[in-house]
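Record format v2
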Amino acid sequence: MTEPKPVLEARGIVKIFGQHRALDTVDFTANAGEVHALLGENGAGKSTLIKILTGAYQPDGGELLLDGQPITLRDPLHGQTYGIGTVYQEVNLLPNRSVAENLFLGRQPTRFGMVDRKRIDAAAKDLLSRYGLDIDVRAELSEYSVAVQQIVAIARAVELSGKVLVLDEPTASLDRNEVQRLFDVVRGLKAKGLAIIFITHFLDQVFDLADRVTILRNGRKVASQPLNTLNTTDVVRMMLGKDVAFDHHPTALSGGPKGQVRVAFQNLSRKGLTPFDLSVHEGEVVGVAGLLGSGRTEVARLMFGVDGSDTGQITVDGQPVTIRNPAQAVAAGFGFCPEDRKLDGIFGDLSVRENIIIALQAKLGWFKALNREDQVELAGRYAEALDIRAADHDMPVKLLSGGNQQKVILARWLAIDPTFLILDEPTRGIDVGAHAEIVRTINRLREEGLALFVISSELDEVVAYSNRIVVMRDREMVAELDGDTIAPDAIVQAIAGTAKEARP
Amino acid sequence: MTRSLRPLLATTLIFLFAYALAVSQQPAMLSTRVLGNFLTDNAFLGIAAVGMTFVILSGGIDLSVGAVIGFTTVLVAVLIMWLELHPLLAFAIALIVATAFGAIMGAAIHYLKVPSFIVTLAGMFLARGGASVLSPDSIGIEHPFFTAVQKSYILLPGGGRLTVVGIIMLIVFACAILLAHRTRFGSNVYALGGSETSAALMGVPVARTTISIYALSGFLAGLAGVVFSLYTSAGYSLNALGVELDAIAAVVIGGTLLTGGYGFVAGTFIGVMLQGLVQTYIVFDGTLSSWWTKIVVGVLLFMFILLQRLVFRAGPRRT
């Protein structure tokens, strides 16, 4: 390989949101004729970095250099004029307009003030043929598959910018053949000397396409190196963050006597998710490990009835129950703390007290309103039990810190006296100090006899509270670790499994 | 054929079918006289509906149209009868006022990020109120120019009369078709209706386009007001009550998707004509209450909304 020629460089980028350092002195270099993969779990800072590189955000520190010259980008449109084009997962084109117009909007050739359609159509056809697409360019964009739309989006981006191409999870909704078609296009552009930045959470695709990888974790750069020096296990390990110094799995958890089975799922499945069997015992925490997109959240949503299941039975304490929607799940004594707390969890403008009692109120029904004294009493009890630090239980919950918000949601479910709690990424977006507290709370709930199902990408945390760990990969439960077999290394191996096989 | 053409085709077929049905019942309806009256009687609605088409294509709504028509008729009457301006000067002033009014609403929608529904609702009250403040009573317009214009027409074969207001409407439609389908501005309007985020990322000047769209709608509502004053020779603050809803109905029946992005100006023309046809039929019949127009329009609207659901629900069909 010849000496790489840097096109777009980011040096010491810092981005701060409120109190939170989303990016902490991150360096990134995109070289000409190279596909550079950017990896990291949710919240690692991937999308923040991309938004800075394309001009959607302005950095709070550090600088951007294009061909060695410092640049300041006002917005993505401005970035485009510098040659930085972006294609997003959700195609950002106009579904209602023709393919040709999508390619030429904003720069249509005109004659006597009228748009010259014939010329546009001919130029569009010519342009797309270079990408191996022979389609009717006068048809509406939405009539074509997402893969074709992606290629059209790439053609437009390259046409308008032509130095750097950012592909932000372009393959998320494509099937295998479509992915290959897209990759062929990307390889062609790479051969033409474009610098390509590729974001995805499919590791096999990274190994398939990319030359170099940069891994972010918690807003910091973990590594940036050529891919041929790495294997899948290395990458997974770096993404999940721990090298060797994993916390020891507390021996107290392993092999301890299990209580009775509280909740059992048999052959539960939904389109795109391999059927699974799982039972959770009284006083047991089942941890779920797996990368983003492995199907973790889908399992949780299926269990809680957010998405309906195609097959399978659910039994609670030996009794079969039907769960087709969250209300039935609550009636069966289930609780669910979702991944995106702000969007799906808290009612930001309602008070701490109202947020705590809302599930109980929903379970009681319309006509049995909890009176104010009961509400205050309940809120007070759980706030104390979980150590929720709020100046006042009547203040809006959105003013609390992430950790305290998470505890409010926990309190909400504890108030209904649940049999089974599902926690999806309970420590995400919470400052590191509060992590330990959430872990302690989970441990305490287990000791009190609750059955818990906890999803986390923080390996050391899963190890710290789980009696059993289920590993997910490609929307399937691929391994179950129990007792002494619970070790971070074993988890990393299990996660990396298929990706390694798929490596050419 | 692109699928957005299908509702337009359906509207055209329904219009032809309805016209044939009307003629089979009332053979006298098949004449250029009736057609000429169609154009004259619906000129103000047609012109206002053109502006509404652009607004709806961009994903917005303009509820101020009827009120702006009413306001314009009063303003024109006041300028001519009280201030004794020449009608042409009065028209020019009224059009400038109406255009500026639309532009201000467009600016409010874009910069204050308020839904167009709310902004133009406020605009509706302002214009209607303003008209009543100018003159709560109807002002009759008497001017030689008005009489001359009202008496001018082109004689069609068969004795039909293509009046000045009818001609104005046809010109407006012709220009609007070119503007929508053959200019960058037109493309930008459709782009906004498709996805404002995408449009902005693709370099569409969102602010300028939004303001232009509502200014255009204001201008055309003003022009509809001028036409209305020529049509009735009067300015009255309660003129054209609820015309914005007729215009919306014409646009939707004409095959434009109410959520924006899909549709044709020519469809709106057929939508207006279809409403006119129903009204004319009821006049010819003589026994039916004119409220049947509303019922037929209601049924048609419902049908078209269903049709659009069916047409646009289909996913990608090509690979």
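Chain A has three domains: 6-96+140-230, 260-333+418-504, 344-416.
Chain A touches chain B through 33 residues (CB under 8 Å).
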